[in-house]
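Hi L.,

You mentioned the student needs an example of a multi-chain input paired with its predicted structure. This one should do, with 489 residues in total across all chains.
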Amino acid sequence: MKEKMIHLDKITFAYPGNPPVLEDIELEIYTGDFIVILGPNGSAKTTLLKIMLGLLKPQKGTVKINTSRITSPHIGYLPQKSSLNQDFPATVQEVLELTHKKSSFRNNNQIQQIKAILEKVKLQEKSNSLLGTLSGGQLQRVFLARALLNNPQILILDEPINNLDIQAQDELYELLHNLHQEELTIITVTHDPDSIRDYASRFLYVDRKKITEIPKDNWRVV
Amino acid sequence: MPEILQYTFMQKALIIGLLVGGLCPSIGTFLVLRRFSMIGDTLAHVSLAGVLLGILWGVSPLPFALLVSVLVVFVLEKLKSVFKNYAELSLAIIMSTGLGLAVVLMGFTNTSDTSISGLLFGSIITLSNQDILIIGLLSSISIFVIKFFYREFFFLTFDEEGARLAGIAVERYNYLLLILTAMVITIGLRIVGALLISSLMVVPVAASLLLSRGFKQTLLYAVIFGILSVLIGLTASFYLGLAPGGAIVLSSVTLFLLLLLITKTHH
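Structure written out for the whole complex:
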């Protein structure tokens, strides 16, 4: 039987001084789910992800992960590309060391893990490159590698293919597919459900403060 | 021994100068990359008002200036929550208040024109033994804090949300970074002056960004350029009779321009 990974229990969220953007949300996510979240601009998709991550606190309701309250090490997060400074003067290796749990104790285990993650995202040659010198697709894979450090059980991605060319999109989706095969639970927001359709297990539609689950073959109706 | 090292006041100035030259750009690296360069200028103006208040009330000026700056850091953070989308507006308000207060206080204090100009543009002859002691103590604390919380400051600077997810108490480290900024400004106030100290937090970092191949390198180069600027500036100040603050800042700008020229030609 599939284990419940995340449970959003009657969540209501509003930004200060504004009406709620999500109201009475009930959502259960299980081990091995590959969830695609769709919805128009401004429909609170990112807000929903941030509530799952514990970055935003709902006014009503609770977020539970593995039946305990949410804690970060279980979840890897790839934020929207625009929210990160892509010209930051740091190397790929520095960014990954920074995110590693035992960052202050640089040891063999850490170096090996970072090396393995870089191989997984096919960036082993780029560990000493500055972020600003990478292409959009490579940069996105660095941030994916970062999200995969510390062995997350759940991977949350916010519009991961935005501004990527077709080839980079395909590479990223293939990578996500492989990770899903390795039993990682994946939740992603996207505006392009067509290309991810074959990999996804559930489609959710966020609009007008509510979440609706759409049958996999029927998402085009919305 | 070179003439510059034969005078006690120059020895003191060089010791403090090296501390200021290293500390300003190390804090500056975090501030510049957080797009928060203006905070240095703001806190420097507040410090100036603090020093003058200290003189007026007969209390030790440097610790008092630090106290005032730290209090203002908390006011600033509160003000930022009022103007959420206009962070620089809060800085402008605090900076104007600091400078306005300083100008008014100058009229009340009995300090000479030389001391006032020393506060504004830096001076190498006004360093008392008490100053050295306070500056030494504040520098040691600052170096320890930067070394100890390097990862937290780096994470906060690179990705605040990611830092929060990694379990870093973002607000606490934000305050710590700003308090550290206030400390470093207090350290540099005497020698570089209130109007110029923030340049030493920014220009060496700009120069370093031209060369850097990573974050640690950016920090290291910024510190090297900061120390070089102070050494060149103080030497020029001694032999040519220039105001030390101005000479230090112009040295750092010259270094920056030289590097810009070299890197542009190289590319």
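You could point out the following to them. Chain A has six helices and ten strands. Residues 166-181 of chain A form the longest helix (16 residues).

Best wishes,
N.
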